[in-house]
Design a protein that fits this description.
Elements (H helix, E strand, L loop, with lengths): L7 H22 L5 H12 L1 H13 L5 H11 L12 H19 L3 H12 L2
Helix pairs in contact: 1-2, 1-5, 2-3, 3-5, 4-5
């Protein structure tokens, strides 16, 4: 099975864990030593609203390739009506799009590109 044939929600499931791991490592490297402080800082990156905003910035800056945009659109357009109470469906779909892209890139062994995307998000 090709990576493009994998259900976008499965890719997002994988991407979510990878994304959160990057965020946790980034915050630890910033020398945040208290777990409660780490959790509060992580929300700035891992909330659906934050993820949707970062994705929109990447799109606005033409940071993503056309094939990456295609992956994001597949996830964004996936038929679902469920979403967390903390955000609207559009925000949730954009956040899912970012997570899907990360999962896709991981399965395609494009860790360097994930590093670039996360550097963009972290403002490096």
């Amino acid at each position: 099975m090709s990576t493009k044939e994998i259900n976008v929600l499965v890719l997002a499931y994988l991407g979510d864990t990878i994304y959160e791991n990057y965020v946790r490592r980034f915050l630890i490297q910033k020398k945040i030593a208290n777990v409660n402080d780490l959790q509060k800082a992580a929300v700035q990156y891992v909330s659906a609203k934050s993820q949707a905003n970062y994705l929109q910035k990447m799109i606005d800056c033409n940071f993503l390739s056309s094939s990456e945009i295609e992956i994001v659109k597949r996830a964004r357009n996936y038929k679902t009506t469920s979403h967390p109470k903390s955000c609207d469906i559009v925000t949730y779909k954009y956040a899912t799009g970012l997570e899907c892209l990360i999962g896709y890139l991981d399965l395609e062994n494009q860790k360097g590109r994930i590093d670039e995307i996360m550097s963009f998000i972290f403002g490096n």
